[in-house]
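Sequence only, no structure available. Ideas?
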Amino acid sequence: MAFMPSYVEALREGYTRDPLQPETPPIIDQIERQAEWFVRLLAQPPHHVVLSDGSLGERTPETELWYVEGETFLGSISVRPKLDEALEAWGGHVGYTVRPSARGQGHASAMLAAMLDHIGETLPLDRVTLTVHLDNPASMRVIEKNGGAVRDEVDHPWIEGLRGRRYWIALR
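Reply:
I predicted one. Tokens follow.
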């Protein structure tokens, strides 16, 4: 809860956990007004998600961690220990994002390095996959700096014209 004011400030400056579904001003206002509800939602997310075709599907388990300095929220990183077919095609095991005012300062590289150490110590994975949009060279550099090897380039499964690069990062 101590980081919620800074988190809301990050949302207002353009931070989003999912660039394909950015938070709208009314959602940001709700998060600010109902901060305790939002923190509970992060800790205990719903078991189902709305899929691209509008149907409900099982939510893939995911752990999200916040990256902070003092009381300032800088970004978040998440890990999914198992991938379903959709996340294997686009998304991968690890996702991260940094608030706009903190980009270009090495935070993403530090977050990813720490998460890779955490995964290697706690999960039975030999490697992880990450996906990045082709128009995001900064994230490509972060992944490559952390040992990422290009796996392939793929079309987004439900957004026409969006292409990405999938990477492998060996943990062992």
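The chain has a mean pLDDT of 92.
Hope that gets you unstuck.
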